[in-house]
Amino acid sequence: MNAMDSFIAGIEWIAAGFVGLVAADIFISVMLRYFFSYSIPDGYDFGRLFLGILIFWGIAATSYRGAHITVDLVWESVGPRLKRFIDVFATLVLLLVVTVQTIMLFDKVAQTKAQNVLTYDLQIPTWPFFLVAWLGDVAAVLLIAVRTFRLVFNPKSVNEEHSTAPVE
Amino acid sequence: QDKIINLKISLWVPPTHPLVKSTQEWADSITKASGGTITATVFPAEQLGKAFDHYDMVRDGIADIGYVSPGYQPGRFPVINAAQLPFTVANATGGSAALDSWYRKYAPKEMADTHFCMAFVHDPGALHSTRKKIVLPSDVKGLKVRPAQQTMGELVTTLGGTNVQASAPESRDALERGIADAITFPWNSIFLFGIDKVTKYTLDVPLYTTAYTWTMNKDVYANASAAQKKVLDDHCTTEWAVKLSAPWTEFEHAGRDKMKKAPGHEVVELTPDQVAEWRKAVAPLQASWEKQVAAKGYDPAVVLGDLKKALADKQAAF
Amino acid sequence: MTQNFVAVSGFVLLFALMLLRVPVGMAMGLVGVTGFGLLAGFGPALKLIGQTSMRTVTDYTFGVIPMFLLMGAFVTNSGMSRELFRAANTFIGHLRGGLGLATIAACAGFAAISGSSVATAATFSTVAYPEMRRFNYPQSFAAGTIAAGGTLGAMFPPSTVLVVYGIITEKDISRLFMAGIVPGILAVLMYMVTIMVIGMVRPDMLQVAPKSNWAERVRAIKDVWAPLLLFFFVIGGLYGGLFTPTEAGGVGAGGAFIIGLLRGKLNREKILMSLLQATRTAAAIFTVLIGALIFGYFLTITGTPQKITAFLGDLGLGRYGVLLLILLMYLVLGCLMDAMAMIILTVPIVYPVIVSLGFDPIWFAVIIVMTVELGLIHPPVGMNVFVIKSVVPELTFSKIFRGVAPFIVTDLVRLGLLIAFPIIATWLPSHL
Ligand code: NA
Ligand code: NA
Description:
The complex is a heterotrimer of chains A (168), B (318) and C (432).
Chain A: H1 2-36, H2 43-65, H3 73-77, H4 80-115, H5 127-153
Chain B: E1 5-10, H1 18-33, E2 38-43, H2 54-60, E3 65-68, H3 92-103, H4 107-110, E4 115-121, E5 125-129, E6 144-146, H5 150-158, E7 162-163, H6 168-176, E8 182-185, H7 189-192, E9 201-208, E10 211-216, H8 218-222, H9 226-235, H10 238-261, E11 266-268, H11 272-295, H12 300-313
Parallel strand pairs in B: 1-2, 1-3, 6-7, 6-8, 9-11
Antiparallel strand pairs in B: 3-10, 4-10, 5-8, 5-9
Chain C: H1 3-19, H2 24-40, H3 42-57, H4 64-77, H5 80-92, H6 98-111, H7 117-134, H8 139-150, H9 152-155, H10 160-169, H11 173-201, H12 214-240, H13 245-262, H14 268-302, H15 304-314, H16 318-333, H17 339-356, H18 361-375, H19 383-391, H20 397-420, H21 423-431
The complex binds sodium ion (NA) (2 copies).
């Protein structure tokens, strides 16, 4: 279990690192523009490609922690047995959706490579960035599978953050 | 008895754009010619997907027909980008006819996973700036420019400027805020997006145009009956390429006189010597384009030579 | 299968999945793809997933969301909420109900940095609640004040709800931010009046605290001026033309980071914590954005938005009748889901109606934020209320809702004022 937890922590740090990179990219771009009238080549493309990476790796962590935006009206008002049934159902649907998404995203990455889509200024291929983002979605599938397994066989070990970490 | 086909036609321009109305007329003509067996719904304003994705959307069947800007995806469709080389196309009426007839030969290979319908260009756009008057290529050095497409982006880099990316609606803000100093844009769209409120100078030279295609999903075409195919073929012609884009061409063309008359705007005209200087400055772009095209197995001299010949035939070469 | 049947089934299935606690974004994506598949083929529908997901997460303009979240996280983790509360308290804490007034003032100050009403409520549950209890303020009053004060987070810029509204409707985010300021100030004043009225009616309930001297006041101000200056720089720069919304967020995050470091308030652990918080929330919001886009493409091919616009127009209720109907729908939806999900799900459908009725889209942004924020505090479900309860377990839901009730009345009055006098929202953005 400890190995699993550090794996999840690792995934979150990757996402967190990229949010820092996006912020640094934007902050430094603005400063360079005003003080030195200079733009980082492909600063715009790097910003958005890092954003993609941070979001997919973030979705992996968010899915595992059950921190997605959900409607809890029914869940709040039923007993523990039904609660658990709802949890398992919801996680299975989540697993299905994210798995399909991951497959289709792979298709998108492969096509982007085949199509030779390049960045604006430096003309470097964009597909490697897409690939790193896609790996985040692969991690999401793995983590949701773990979550589902734990929910069914060992419900106590599921990290339930939802009620204390709402979104908006 | 032909099966009824309902075409989803997707555009990424707003509903008020001249192209939307002519698309509807094109679709109505198809419906009439097919005796009502082909109908269409026009979806403007990215209702089915983003501008950048229109080619893929058509290939995948998310839309049946799409308005594609190949230059939006740097590196993917090098051949058609020949039309985007600076100082190549002088006007859109002849330019669209020339582009369409020339690209018909290359489309089946370069856009192999879709059915090519037609291609056209917009009336050549110019370089507009807010504070600094641009006359010579050297004036671009150190400027922040919002380019129309990737070829213009390369031009900016070649001349020592930097690119600022912004969508068309964001462009005015970017110029107003000094995030950009200049923009390449068609003449009348400048007024449509309110950019004229922030620009002062316009360089009056057919600096660039953007090549577009009208692209159809392969299965839609393959599954049509012989009679329906003929109707579609009759609407995917060089004549229709000119006709479909004509209202937009006229619209943009009118912007040139409007700009000349607009108070607080200076339209800069160039002497032949100055034009020659510009041509020299943009030469590296052609070299870079040649490399890309050659890498895909074409002979760049033939490709560009054919285009220039077609343009000359239609009185649209600069 | 007809378009209408598929569309209606889609909505039914969507609500069923959401009630079974399937994440809102995933439910929208699943129904959207299935519906699109039934009407236009499953091949295209599946391709829609990869296309939309990748396009959405790599859209530079959407970067504004994680950036403002990060700015808020840095400031929160630097302990600013406590400092704001202390500063407000030195000035108005000695009045009757003064701790409540200070809570509202501090919430407003915090709102100027945070984009989220839930985050604001969560923060002040830990800061202001114990203080109010120390002076024997009733549990219900203390919790109600924090729940209401929290809603200011989405009203004052920056506001993630307004950002998402701007993204969906393609409206200028800086103008939307400006539109929220005067209604936000109005909210602060009305909340304060509400507290003073409670204090007058029940003087025994709200004790008076000792008055602070000027030395204490100056010391308290020293703690909060830097982050508040950052707010004026970021929002002023956004409106005044120094940068785009995404850049404003990046500059705000960078500035908050530097201020926190210089003041010695951010250590390694707090920096990492801030990055994590911003990431998790951004991922949750983007999931809903992707789902909503896919669901939107499905609705487009069913023609639903046009049909709803036509249907509402044919009811013969007049434009204000339709507006009230829409606001009622939001109040009902507010029983079910949180603000972000509500905005993303409904705005694509409601917005064309509002525009066709001739209402001002900027004004409507403010109206809709007020309405969904009301949903965060009204029973039976209110996200702010849940958050306060999770931070302060001794509270019961009925106590919190009782404490919130006077503020709900105030909010409804304010909503009426905004509808009667749209200029409250539209004046500032049109005069700057
Ligand atoms: Na705020
Ligand atoms: Na509610």
